[in-house]
Design a protein that fits this description.
Layout: H1 2-21, E1 26-34, E2 36-37, E3 43-51, E4 58-64, E5 70-73, E6 81-85, E7 90-99, E8 106-116, E9 122-131, E10 145-150, E11 154-155, E12 161-169, E13 175-183, E14 188-195, E15 200-207, E16 216-226, E17 229-230, E18 235-241, E19 245-254, E20 258-267, E21 273-280, H2 282-286, E22 288-291, E23 295-299, E24 302-310, E25 315-323, H3 325-344, E26 348-360, E27 363-375, E28 381-391, E29 394-396, E30 409-413, E31 418-428, E32 433-446, E33 450-452, E34 456-461, E35 464-469, E36 473-475
Parallel strand pairs: 2-9, 11-18
Antiparallel strand pairs: 1-3, 3-7, 4-6, 4-8, 5-7, 8-9, 10-12, 12-15, 13-14, 13-16, 16-17, 16-18, 19-20, 20-25, 21-24, 22-25, 23-24, 26-27, 27-32, 28-31, 28-34, 29-32, 30-31, 33-36, 34-35
Length: about 475
């Protein structure tokens, strides 16, 4: 009897040990989210997993062996589908079940496995999916059109928006009329197209916005419909309407000497405050005025009119006026002055210079005075009389340079204390030149630098008398 009791106790202890040893390392349960669908939809389930290991972290992989009839994935796609849990922790994974090759209505079982990485234990969790309708099947095929969209992410509302839609028919279904819908807060368009069996097609569309559309983020949704039923999951693209603040030329009124350019400073940012710049040049800025008044600034070697603005109603008008009348008046004045100078200038020019200077006792004691006279006019000059004046303390005489004309007369003025040297020349032809010279000596050496007064001449041209003067000649010690 004691033996029997001991045997029964041993069996109980062994059974408890076996139960503990065989306890599952984890648990997995299924929670349906959407298990009744039509053929073009996807079922959704949540898998709740509990890690029963008290001291070990574990990773669980979720997969199905029913591919390619059914596909199991996550959104966004995670490959492979895994979930990591700490000791004694719980977690969940939401999966999407896609009926890839199902063509009949009914209830189907999809076998999904959950495998422990730590213990290699596997739990099979069957999913039940009910197909309510297969009305979207066409000729026994599930419509499969791979669709892509190309649209700029950053959009300037002033510019056209190019949108390209690519369609790739994966089976032999003929779509005589497909409807592509583009929808966002700002863009709402519908495009019709034909798509043959196994055909690739690229559609191009250009959307436009109000240029003053304010900066914002938007989502462009693209849907593909056949017989008013969607045959793809909608495609979503994020787009951003950017802000801008730039001048736009309204019109330009150009005349011979005055031009007016009207600009509209525009921004799609409400209540914009800042600066606007208009490029100009140094020449144009000198003869330009702006309304409202601007300042000039130089950046990177370029010159700008700079306006400080605060926009109301998203715009402000600016006028730039270029006025070249003052420039023309200045040019006319210069031309008139030049013409007047050449018309009124003396045709007889005289250049006075000093040569052959002799020094003694620290000063100048003798020198030769030379006068170059030339007829620079177009007519002959007659009855030319040239007079030069020197101080009465010097004596005049001596040799003069070869080729130079010697004075015709030398006259002394006792009261003024000067001596006048005179030459008389009958005439000078146009461009003809003569050299006049005389030599002076001083009894006392002249110290320091000094200058000699200019010579004067009178002459007759075209029956009228005129006068002319030479420069003052300087003598340095």
């Amino acid at each position: 009897m004691d033996f029997l009791k001991r045997f029964i106790a041993l069996i109980v202890v062994f059974s408890v040990y076996i139960s503990i040893a065989n306890a599952a390392s984890f648990e997995a349960t299924i929670v349906p989210i959407e298990d009744r669908i039509v053929i073009d939809e996807f079922a959704k389930f949540r898998i709740d997993i509990s890690n029963n290991l008290k001291e070990t972290k574990d990773e669980y992989r979720i997969y199905t062996l029913d591919f390619p009839i059914w596909d199991v994935r996550t959104e966004p796609i995670l490959n492979p589908i895994t979930l990591e849990l700490g000791p004694g922790k719980e977690g969940s994974v939401e999966i999407v079940v896609d009926p890839l090759k199902i063509k009949d209505i009914g209830t189907y079982q999809v076998n999904v496995n959950v495998r422990s990485r730590a213990t290699s234990d596997v739990i099979s969790v069957p999913l039940k999916v009910t197909i309510l309708s297969t009305s979207l099947l066409i000729g026994g095929y599930v419509p499969t059109v791979i669709t892509g969209i190309d649209v700029p992410e950053r959009i300037d509302p002033r510019n056209d928006i190019p949108i390209k839609i690519s369609l790739n028919n994966q089976n032999i279904i003929d779509y005589p009329e497909l409807t592509i819908k583009l929808e966002s807060n700002l863009i709402k368009e519908t495009i019709s197209a034909k798509l043959g069996p196994k055909e690739d097609k690229l559609l191009s569309y250009t959307a436009t916005l109000d240029p003053l559309t304010y900066p914002q983020e938007d989502k462009l949704v693209v849907a593909l419909l056949f017989n008013n039923k969607s045959i793809i999951n909608p495609i979503v693209r994020r787009i951003n309407i950017i802000d801008y603040a730039e001048p736009e030329l309204i019109n330009e009124d150009k005349n011979f000497l005055i031009s007016k350019s009207r600009y509209n400073f525009v921004s799609n940012k409400e209540g914009y405050e800042g600066i606007f710049k208009l490029e100009t040049t140094l020449f144009d800025s000198i003869f330009s005025s702006t309304h409202p008044k601007s300042r000039i600034a130089t950046e990177n070697g370029k010159r700008y009119f700079v306006f400080d603005v605060k926009l109301e109603n998203n715009s402000m008008e600016v006028t730039v006026t270029k006025n070249f009348i003052p420039l023309l008046a200045a040019i006319i004045l210069v031309i008139t002055a030049v013409i007047g100078y050449y018309a009124l200038r003396s045709p007889l020019i005289m250049l006075k210079e000093v040569s052959n200077i002799i020094k003694s006792e620290g000063g100048v004691s003798a020198m030769t005075i030379v006068l170059h006279i030339r007829n620079r006019g177009q007519n002959k000059l007659n009855e030319i009389e040239v007079n030069d004046y020197v101080h009465g303390l010097v004596s005049i005489g001596g040799d003069v340079p070869i080729g130079a004309l010697q004075p015709t007369k030398i006259l002394k003025h006792e009261k003024k204390g000067t001596t006048m040297v005179r030459w008389v020349i009958d005439g000078l032809e146009p461009s003809e030149e003569r050299v006049l010279a005389y030599r002076i000596k001083s009894k006392l050496s002249i110290l320091g630098s000094f200058s000699l007064q200019g010579a004067k001449a009178s002459f007759k041209s075209n029956g009228k008398f005129f006068t002319s003067s030479s420069n003052r000649a300087s003598v340095s010690e």
